[in-house]
Amino acid sequence: MTESFKVIDVDVHNEQNDSALVPYLPEPWKSRVAAGGIGSVSSGYHSPVGVLRRDAVPPGGGKAGSDPDYMIKQLIERYDMEYAILTGVIYNIAATHDADFAAAICSAYNDFLIAEWLGKSKAFKGAMAVSTLDPLLAAREIDRLAGHPDIVEVIISSAARMPLGQRFYHPIYEATERNGLPLALHPGAEGAGSTTAPTAAGYPSRYIEWHTCLSQTFMTHLVSMVCEGVFVKYPNLKVVLIEGGIAWLPGLMWRLDKNYKALRSQVPWLTKLPSEYIREHVFISTQPIEEPDNPQHLIDLFNMIDAENIILYASDYPHWDFDAPTEILKRLSPEAKRKIFYENARKLYRL
User: Does residue 288 have a cis bond before it (omega within 30 degrees)?
Assistant: First the structure.
């Protein structure tokens, strides 16, 4: 790297075949997955470039991102990363219909993560997955594993049946706060299964539309969490918005503040501007960062949201739109880079 700064990557997808979870499942789910796999939980939109990097396929075969040793070599050692938060992909199970099955899959994945990944490198830290289909089961899972020293986060899918601020989901936030962990939202199954349409206008035709409009889901969830009083009810909760973009945030904060001034009677539990709750409780990841032709425009946008204190570096390895730490945010000051690539995540995850 041309500049010397430490790196913590907050979005690294460790993949696995469905069969890898079978030993960690109880019946009847063990037999079901052994016979037919987990089943599709993807959005169903075709990407012409695929989803995974072809060069991330391990030398011995298998899915890209499925070999801890190869990930260490290709990602951790190559970019001299101090820590990588393993986010997996199993959170998308919340797009299915069976809450008990989804909870069992998440528990099996979490046990698999601990047994077969977290001990492979001091750099690996884990995000435990829970399903939003049954928040009480999710809370039980959070309490079960929150004490593990290498579990540093709870992760849920941003694909859901309703906005995530609504009271149905509050047991997840209560358990997350109670155990002192951040909560991450991650996209991937918007429009699939039992989830709502992936855009405010319905179902688009192509992957490029679906992928571009993922920010709409994050806007909805963030406004919901603020207006439903999640950050008032759970004052120590921190939320990480992963892979939803960044450029939309200033306009959303302005619009919400403006509306609050006239409509505050609808949300009497809020005692300060909505943007203040966002700045105090919300972090947002770099990948996939918008990169305008004029780099100064991005710097101006960053200044509008106090970006150097709320943004976390994410590579999204091993996905097709991977962002290397050496290739993004080159024009930021050394101090801003130190915070975004390392210090913000170190503090948030208590590393």
Answer: yes
CA separation for the pair 156, 87 (Å, rounded)? 10
Dist CA 121 CA 118 (whole Å):
7
pLDDT tens digits in sequence order for the chain, 351 residues long: 446 679 999 999 999 999 999 999 999 999 999 999 999 888 889 999 988 999 999 999 999 999 999 999 999 999 999 999 999 999 999 999 999 999 999 999 999 999 999 999 999 999 999 999 999 999 999 999 999 999 999 999 999 999 999 999 999 999 999 999 999 999 999 999 989 999 999 999 999 999 999 999 999 999 999 999 999 999 999 999 999 999 999 999 999 999 999 999 999 999 999 999 999 999 999 999 998 999 899 999 999 999 999 999 999 999 999 999 999 998 899 999 999 999 999 999 999
Helices (H), the chain: 29-36, 68-71, 99-116, 135-145, 170-178, 207-212, 214-227, 230-233, 249-263, 274-281, 295-304, 307-310, 334-338, 344-348
DSSP 25: P
Helix (H) or strand (E) holding 8: strand 7-12
